[in-house]
Each structure stands twice: as structure tokens, then as C-alpha cells.
Design goal:
The complex is a heterodimer of chains A (about 160) and B (about 100). Chain A has about 160 residues and is an alpha+beta fold. Chain A is built from four helices and six strands; from the N terminus they run ββαββααββα. Chain A has a four-stranded antiparallel sheet. A two-stranded antiparallel sheet of chain A has the order 1-5. The longest helix of chain A is centred in the last third of the chain and has 19 residues. Chain B has one domain. The chains are: A alpha+beta (about 160), B alpha+beta (about 100). Strand 1 of chain A pairs antiparallel with strand 1 of chain B, so a sheet runs across the interface.
Chain lengths: ~160, ~100
């Protein structure tokens, strides 16, 4: 066998060094945000509409973060106290344990965060539904999202 | 509160080992003290940066944060972090592990 003409047809093991990156997210205190994990889209839409109507939050944006996981962002700015009260109301009404867990973590941090970048096998959250006005907090969120995505694209 | 970019996850870093020692005070009480040794240990833990500021500073801060892992949970302006990254973090590497937002 001529060694000069040998070609590699199969490689076993690690071929490329994995390069884990930190997760990038968006944090603020004035925007009402909800993180629904393991909930169908219809229910997410129902709860988002109900919250927007009940608390007069003008409009909302739904992002799909992974299979059956959604993020909701509302348009009207509110104080941190009001924000906590709204998310607590939703947690209580929906009896959603993951949302409650996420909410407790946000209370500890005193600011709510939603993911923008990919995370392990989950892709970047993408916009799937819009309702009502989108020109206040949602606009700010989308601007920061675009900036973060641009940073991530440059880092690749 | 301003809008912020959160950079978070699990990381591995080498930190100096702290050693405790006791010293007898003048009033007779045995007081415990800590000193930082030259030895280093590798730790795996979670941390987060919360960057605020202008787009250009945020860009630079996020790029730097890929190499410099936070010392715990840090809220800092992107401009200050870019000027003195070693004050808010230490060299290390981010690792792939489940983390809550």
C-alpha cells in the first residue's frame, strides 16, 4: 500500500475542539417579560392576551425559544414593583411551576432577563407572534436583540 | 434602571487558595484571619455580567467577556469593564453546562 496516496475516510473521536460560549441575554426592570417553558402556543397566546388586556400593557411579542417554550414581552413600561406584581399574578393564575421558578430567580436578581443567544442545543429565540402596539419597550428590546445578534455574528 | 446585556453561564477558572490562621489578640480572644496563598485551584461555578452602556462599549465588553470570566455576579458599565477587566473578572473559560437565566 502506498502511504503517500492514503486518504482519510473516517475519523473517530473529537475532530474539532468545541468552543463553549457564554449565554447572552437582555435585562431590564421596566419591561414585563414572561418565560413559558413546556406550554403550547395557543395557551401562551391566551395568557399573553389576557395579561395585556387586564393590566393595559398595550401590545405584546411572542418569541419561540425552543420546542414548546416561548418568551413574551409586553410594550408598556412599568415600575419594578408593578412588574413583580404582574408576573406574580400570572404565576398564580397559570400555576406554571417553571414560570414561578424563573420569576423567583428574577426577584433575587432584581431585574428580569430573557435569553437572546443560542444555548447548548437550543437556537436563538425567534419572533412568532405580534399583537398591539410595538413602539415602546418592544422596540427597545428588538434594538438590543439586533445589537447582540450582530456581536454574536462578528464573533463567529 | 437602564437596559443591560447579560452575559452568563458556567465557567472554569483558576483562583488563589485562601488559608485560615488564628492569632491571639491582646484581649486574649483567638481571632481567625484569612490569607491569600500563591497556590491556585481550579473551580467550576456560575457567574454573570450585566453590562450597560453604549453600543460600541457593549460590543467591546462582550468580546472581552468571552476570555475573562466574572468574579461572581457583576453589574458594571461596559466602559468601566473595558478599561479594567481584571477588576471585575479573571482569566478562565466558559463551559457547556445547564444554567438558568
Amino acid at each position: 500500500m502506498n502511504s503517500q496516496n492514503d486518504t482519510v475516510v473516517q475519523v473517530n473521536g473529537l475532530t474539532e475542539k468545541s468552543n463553549p460560549r457564554p449565554i447572552l441575554g437582555y435585562t431590564d426592570r421596566e419591561t414585563v417579560k414572561l418565560d413559558f417553558d413546556n406550554m403550547p402556543f395557543k395557551q401562551v397566546k391566551y395568557w399573553a392576551s389576557r395579561v395585556a388586556k387586564w393590566f393595559r400593557l398595550n401590545g405584546f411579542l411572542v418569541l419561540k425559544s425552543s420546542e414548546k417554550s416561548y418568551h413574551v414581552i409586553f410594550d408598556r413600561p412599568v415600575s419594578w414593583r408593578k412588574n413583580v406584581s404582574i408576573v406574580a399574578w400570572v404565576s398564580l393564575q397559570t400555576k406554571h411551576t417553571k414560570l414561578t421558578g424563573w420569576f423567583i430567580l428574577q426577584c433575587i436578581k432584581q431585574g428580569s432577563t430573557l435569553r437572546i443567544s443560542p444555548k447548548r442545543d437550543k437556537p436563538t429565540p425567534r419572533v412568532v407572534y405580534r399583537s398591539g402596539t410595538q413602539n415602546c419597550q418592544i422596540l427597545g428590546f428588538l434594538r438590543y436583540r439586533a445589537l447582540t445578534k450582530a456581536i454574536l455574528a462578528d464573533l463567529k | 434602571m437602564v437596559k443591560q446585556i447579560a452575559v452568563y453561564g458556567s465557567y472554569r477558572a483558576k483562583v488563589p487558595v485562601r488559608q485560615r490562621y488564628w492569632k491571639k489578640r491582646a484581649d486574649g480572644v483567638r481571632q481567625r484571619y484569612w490569607k491569600q496563598t500563591k497556590r491556585k485551584k481550579t473551580i467550576e461555578t456560575k457567574g454573570r455580567y450585566e453590562f450597560s452602556g453604549k453600543g460600541k462599549d457593549l460590543y467591546k465588553a462582550v468580546v472581552k467577556a468571552h476570555k475573562i470570566v466574572p468574579k461572581g455576579f457583576v453589574t458594571v458599565s461596559a466602559e468601566k469593564f473595558v478599561e479594567q477587566p481584571e477588576r471585575y473578572g479573571c482569566p478562565g473559560e466558559w463551559i457547556d453546562r445547564e444554567v438558568e437565566s
